[in-house]
User: Fold these one by one.
Assistant:
Number 1:
Amino acid sequence: MLNEISFYLLAALTVACAVAAMALRRLVHCALCAAAAFAGLALIYLQLDAEFVGFAQLLVYVGAIAILIVFAVLLTRGEEAAPGGRQSSPSWISGVGIAVLLLAGLLLPILASPSLQHGAPPAPVPSVKRIGEELMTRYVLPLEMVGVLLTAALLGAVVIALREPSDGNLPGNSPAQQRAKTGEAMNL
Amino acid sequence: MNALDQIFVSTLHRLAGFAPASARPLVSMLLIIAGLMALFGTCFALATILERKTLGRMQNRYGPNRVGPFGLFQPIADGVKMLIKEDIVPFSADQALHFLAPLVLTVPVWLAFAVLPFGRNMSAIELDSGILFFFAIGSASELAVFMAGWSSQNKYSLLGAMRAIAQMISYEVPLVLASVPALIAAGSLSLPAIVQAQSGFALGWVPRWNVFTPWGLAGFALFLIAATAESNRCPFDLPEGESELIAGYLTEYSGFKYALFFLGEYLGLFAVTGLAVTLFLGGWQAPAPWLQWLPTWGWFALKFSALIFLFIWARATLPRLRLDQLLHFAWKFLVPLALINLVVAVAWCKSGLWQFPAALEIRWLLGAGVLAASYVGLGRSWKGGYPERRQYNYAQ
């Protein structure tokens, strides 16, 4: 009973934050609402006794991805939407199409899976030790692959970020000014 | 001895016993929360006066000495002042976020105390993955700093927030990497289990604390440095550098919201200090067999206070870093060293099976040698501290 009430509260909160993340006008508010929705999802995991997943969700989504979004918003500093202007992008139809396709792609395998036929299995005890053992034995190859993929992505990001603007092309770009500029960029 | 050791636990049980049986878990949780808040609220007040006094002594002046005996009531006066000060919100500020930011900073920090083992049987909740909870909760503070900086709609605040977030993200990596060896050695993510793994004495008199192993010593140093940076304290306090950023993201805060930021900062420092004690200094374990008559929470408090004093001492002694030096230091020195430390820790744990005489000494020397060599090598190869001379356009 108490469990159900808290689930509905958390679910309502998460959905409300997700809706707000799409509907609000200022980009920073949207990003923060998305972070709140991530946190709500983590709380739902915790309510399902999935301790590790819940904390990992908090650590990765609130601690890293939300910060990344916020940083991207800050560094690009695009123009805020005008008060009266339209809020949806002109290509919203394709967005809806993609969302429907994604939902279908997730739902069909879930509905077709045999685990739905033979009832709910006894809830496993997903202790951290158990997760670690599985990751290091049965799923060690996927884990390593993900590690390699993430390292490659990291290196790619560094390579893209390292590309210096070729000096001398712009007028009035003396080395001293160039140095001052890089100094400013570093001081940020 | 045992009665004194468990005095808080037994008091809690007795107090909760007055409640009807169905409400007992809730009541005992509320009692624990009230106790923790009272304890660390007092700690905050004491730490501010201790910090100002110590800084004063180290800078050859008196420090606050007007309110009460030896100025001991200064925190109360400060608190009253903060409460009755006008709370100014800038006209152009984002009102909701400006209001929420201090709360988002302060509330999660309280949660971090829930998993720290303050003594035998004395952690509020024993989570299977306690340390993960600790770091997950800590990630909210970066968002809070961003909210504060952005909602003020002021370029100094925004710059301060950007600096603070860059610093916090950078130093979170060595912080977590430095604590991983302790988890490996204990084979658990639960903090009470980590403390338990450090019990006993090697050679009969050296406590088996992690700090007495080569990887533990290096990890402890790395952890302390990263913790100082995470809690924005000197010498890493440039996000609020008052000389260049007029206090960074705190610029537009006054009155009690400002006090809440300070509360959050100090509580974050306390939490991470408690974690350092738990991970490396053996938690609540006594340092010698004949010293076990002191209650376990007393040992925790002693180690905790010693570390807090170390932080205050560092603040009085060290000059502030420049931002580029700070970030270079994290990524080019601390992170590689923490990774090497991880390898050394794994080798240490694996070589625990060695059976020949003096195996412990050989392991120790090997580990310390590898770490010292990489320390010197990394430090020598690191050019971050000596950049080419910069040209200042308007200062010649």
Note: The mean pLDDT of chain B is 84.
Number 2:
Amino acid sequence: MLKMPAESARGVPAANANADGAFVRIDGVSKHFGDVPALQDASVNIRRGEILTLLGPSGGGKTTLLNVVAGFLAPDIGSIHIDGRPVTDVPPYRREIGVLFQNYALFPHMNVASNVAYGLKMRGTPKAEIQRRLAEVLALVRLTGYQTRRPRQLSGGQQQRVALARALAISPKVLLLDEPFSALDKNLRGSMQLELKDIQRKLGVTTIFVTHDQSEALSLSDRIAVLSEGRIRQVGTPDAIYRRPADRFVAGFVGDVNVLRAELVRVEGETAFVGLGVATLAVPAEPLRGLSQGAPVDLFLRPEQLHLTARGGTSLCEGVIAAHSYQGGHVDIHIASESAVYGRILVRQTQSDAAAHWPVGAEGAIGCETQEAVAFPPEP
Amino acid sequence: MDSCGALRAIGVAIVAITLAFVLLPALVVAIAAFNARAVLAFPPDALSLRWFAKALAYDDFRVGFHNGLIVTAFASSIALVVGSAFAFALDRYSFRLKRTIESVLLAPLVIPHFTIGLGFLILAAELGAARGFAVVIACHVILVLPFVLRSVYISLRNLDQRFELAAASLGAPPRRVLTSVTIPLLAPGLVSGWLFAAILSFNEFTASLFVTSQRTQTLPVAMYNYVREYADPSMAAVSVIYIVATAALLTIANAFFGLGKVLNVENAR
Amino acid sequence: MQDKPFLRAFVSPAALCAFGLIAALAAVFQFSLRAYVPGSLEPGGLTLDNFTALAKPLYARVFLDTISISGITAICTLILGYPIACALVRAKNPLLKSAILIIVVTPLFLGEVVRTYSWIVVLGNNGFINSVLLKLGLIERPLQMMFTHFGVITALVHVTLPVMVIMLAAAISHIDPDYERAAESLGAGPIRAFLTITLPLSIPGIIAGVTTAFAWTFSAFATPQLIGGGQVNMVSNLVYQLGFASFNFPFAASLSVSGLALTFAVLALLRAATRPLEAVTAH
């Protein structure tokens, strides 16, 4: 088995790695390109052995942050600690990090073995040891026997596995993944994600993963940090990010969401009650602080939290069926409604005959069972 | 980062010294041109503009300049038309002798210019043609064609062919696609290709020495003859005018087209 | 869309130009096989005398000199040009980048005569370097730099530097910066990352640059003529001298043909010698 710095962790986030549980500590990092702020006061801790995803739209600052952690960019202010040691002024070649680049950056003039052994050679590892490690990591990525191939003779998935083997061969303290799946086609992407997660768990290597794909982030991460416009908006488990988004941006960026016009009924401690139609829903009070009773609020509900019912009853609102979209496991029904802030309401029905049941043009009411929703003040 | 910083400093020093080496002759010539005395001296005892006046009044330079303009205007324009048309065909079509014609046209990059000059001189004599402008222009067209070809070819490569397909799908026949989409989008490449061809043709010397006569000699040939016969700084004055004009032209070209892109030295990302 | 609109119209003029160049080269070749008739511009009958005359040590020396001057110039230009090309590609400040580009590229468009004259002013016995050194008291008599190999090669390096930098910069700029980052993340310091990644990946540019520098130097005329001043002769000078001083065009033509053959032979050799390197870096 490979010896990883985090061998004891075995993928379980260890609470006692450091005093505050942080294996990688990113503290107040800002970075400007010219006058353009790419990153503003970003702080996040990554625990030993976990996968933390930096999720955000392009231009959000996630790649900048990754490059700062890797040492390819120096932050304007702020600091990076890895395993308790400040590394802000340490050049990338002394940081002991493994990087999986978006296009893999496999050296085209070297074969697979030379690529994978490159980092070990740079460390002056003895030849026999290099051979042993080479065999080990190639076995780990299931590419034993590919030593003498050139990168251009490999498929996209194989190239990625070589790049992963190269990054892991040096037993990095931290593994950095920069949109590693974006160059793969959709089918391959799923299996590579599983394989990567499996290897990461096996080695327990602390991992920072950058992606703009929210479903990828939800399925791969232990925790997610959502970035937009150079700021970290929220850090939390995939479930917390999905169910309890901290602001409008996070709620809209992660997963599909409906925004409905509602009004603030009352606030009780940490809980606020929001009314829409005949229903009242409990939401976290924090984002609504300062609003008075009866103020308009935007209620955020996931498509699977809604269902169509006959008119009347305890529905949130009513509308006219505008379109269907068959998705295999479920049917997405788009409903034109007065209550929708942006265009239409999306409802996810699991019955396969939903389309026949709710033909386009039919009127329907939208009901909601959930008690878990979020609401934010309306956009100015 | 210390070793890194030292390395950087050494790198910067090497680059600075090399750039100084590139600039040195131009600076020295500028000093010489403003020197009042006929004998070179550094630093000069007194400054004067007399060599500029003398150079501008010198008949051979005036005639050479005039001839150079004629040759350059024709040669660069012909090369532009021929070169861009062929670059287009090269990029889009496959045809008989494609690679052969391409390698022949690019050959002047490696064939010594004196050989090409001698060839055109002999050819003209064999055909009984006088050593007039036609021979000089023909020779210059061949010499600058590779540069036009490369410049336009690179622009074509970078041109998204879907624009043309879109125009065609909207009902434009090939001729209209060419005039309404391809040529306007290619304009920067065409202008810079023409500009390079013009500068190179105006400065061409070795082949010109063979194919020009007393009557058709271009400025570089006149300057060469002057250097062989006289040692006064008039030549320095002409050189300064030359250097300033060329640098100015290139700075303008850089501002308009981005020389880096034209020369294909921009970063991959 | 038609299959190949404008094909004929677009290719014919270029084909005509190619034909013109071939005709010119054929004329040189044809003349090289004709006898020289002293006092006449019209050559005589077919003969191989011109080529056998080339075997004389005098001419063989000029050929060897030309090859060695071209080779040394190409190597020196490569060594000087590489750091500049790197700086040009890696410079982050756009103003600095433009400045380097203009400084490097301008000499390319100045023509051989202006540049050679400039070097005469720098290297001459009353020139810049000697004046400065004399004034500083570092030397007592002017250093002889004109009419020497050193002088000729210095000026030729200056002439070929721009094209070398452009070719190297083109190659370096097309190397994905992620390769070097990957090397650094794997523990390679800046020097090792350069030696193991950037340098090998720029080999195609190095080959192209050296090849072109060699060919251009081989073709130089004004520089060896004016700075060499008869002491340093290259093939081009001999051709001109024979053509315009002795009007022995057949012999000048045979020299040209041999020069051309030599250029191509050296370039082919260079290509063959570097093929293994290029195979290594083929993407």
Note: Chain A touches chain B through two residues (CB under 8 Å).
Number 3:
Amino acid sequence: MSNGNVSLTGLNDAESEELHRNLIQGTQFFGMIAALAHLLAYIYSPWLK
Amino acid sequence: MIYGKMWTVVKPTVGIPIFIAAVAISSFCVHLAIVSNTTWVKAFLQGNAPMPASMAAAPMAAPMAAPAAKK
């Protein structure tokens, strides 16, 4: 046995943390692009004007 | 990282598609509701959006001056 610290999903703590870090990073990237798109929509459309 | 160990409990093959689907579906619903319940989005996309007073009052950008003819 190489690793006795296996969880319900088969991931250990370090793998889970790594996956979560990437998921958070992707969400932040998506969020920044979405915020930019909303800013452009606000500037160039009659939205809220 | 907070909640970093959640993937030791939730299978990533289940949790990540649920997360992405929740974002996609809720975003689609909000945009559909806006398109359905306003008139200006459709008009704007058609290219004949009624200009609000604040935008209509703004002066048009000056047309670019033609380059001086060389002699």
Note: The interface with chain B takes residues 7-9, 11-13, 15-17, 19-21, 23-24, 30, 45-47, 49 of chain A (CB under 8 Å).
